[in-house]
Amino acid sequence: MKKTFTLISFLLLFFVYSGIAQQDSIRNIILMIPDGTSSSVLSLSRWYKTYTSGTMASLAVDPWLCGLVKSHSSDAPIGDSAPTTSCYLTGHPTRTGYNSTYPPKTAQDLVSVNPDRAYQPLMTLPEASRIVYGKSLGLVFTSYITDATPADCAAHSYNRSNYAIISKQLVNNQIDVVIGGGIKRLNPYYYDLRKSGYDVVIDDLQQLRNSENPKLWALFGEYSMPYNMDRDTSKVPSLAEMTDIAITKLAQNPKGFFLLVEGSKIDWAAHDNDAKTVVDEFLAFDEAVRVAIDFAQKDGHTLVMILPDHGNSGITIGNRNSNKGYDELSLQQIMEPLSRIKMSAYQMTEILKKYSSEAIDSLFDRNFGIKLSKTQRKEILTAVQRDKNKNYSAESNKTKLSTEKTITKILYEESYIGFTTYGHTGEDLFLAVYHPTGKIPGGLMSNVEINRYLSRQFNLENKLDSLTDEYFVPHLTLFPEASEVSIDSFGRNAIVLKMKVKEQQIEVESYNRVVRVNGKNVALESVPVYVDRNKTFYLPKSLRRFIESL
Description:
The protein is an alpha/beta fold.
């Protein structure tokens, strides 16, 4: 009887503790990046929301703010989107333009760099969660599919502008849900995706809403989605709706998911110093945050982390116009000029390409609420003509503004919103985290520590480097005995490695998960990556084990 009681007690304790462990476990991560969002954008957006709503407003992100993040490249304090997001996902700072790829050593490195690892693809947290635990992967963004931040999740390149090889990797890397912009970036692969069982939606909002397939790629806009304030709501989804659809599909996987949500074009608007569009884009992103938090609170096993990749533009409430009397300015004085603006500077630029110069005054009065002076009118028309002719010299590029920047200079020159640059900035970034059991980080965290925290939630802490060494091995290191080795190019994104190992003929095409062994197709768990800088294919060790088993 005593033994029976002991066994029952043990079983009860086991189920109690396993239940607690399960309740405490994180099954899903939603990483939300408002690209290029300086912390002052939160203040500006919150005050703008207060002004337009008539009541003291808050943001969806506000309750979860918990600290600051020091984000930088491996060799520079001011980061680019590719290396900064890459570090969040791989744990390694890298260089400008590098998508989840180890950097070469330079004379100005801010971190320790191993020159022997230069250009090696780095295992990302999303890739590892799929390979190790069978989790689903989703990408939601408003720029284009091959842009730096979404590309960092599942592609590897030292050149973020090499869209051909990035798109091929993304298509072959088993991403379950993709919703964003950039139809032209994916043109060669729509048939391949449909053949692999995906719903493929092209500029069709109703088809997106009606899709019941958990595997989906949906793209809107040739090169990016429109700014939220320029969006036709009957044809183009909001970032919040895209996030909701992605979560609904990914949550069908009982093993969990990793979802990246990027407010991509906050950064684009900041580059143009377009304050109203920055605010509107951030508020649209904040609605997506509300969707993610609502799901996480109901689910009980979902972590939501919100943080930018870098700052941009040095945007401020207060500028040289407020040198005196800044403490007496009313909310209306600061925000009313923003409230008059009905479209982005980019959208106005597109309109000016089609309209005659005579229409410029009425266009600015109707859409921006300003009366142009003769000087301002001339500035804009000169910029439009220069952009049409594309007659920028290297020297004039330093001093002459594009049409968008000319417009925003005029829109905000008498406002109280300030900018320091048209480029990125290097300040610390805000951090917001929702954790179902309250295990949130705080204080100042480095970009590397962000990766460690996220990896720990999926039980992958300190494992990404070993997974990199498992899945991205130089081909001559993996097969030192190989003979008849050749690497031939059939186009920029179709490089083919051929070699003979143990009488087995192996053929590997760059960025294609299916390799050929003795003429038969073999599917790998990861995508082989070719790096032309060192003429090396990076392959998984599983290919070696497969050859040895033959």
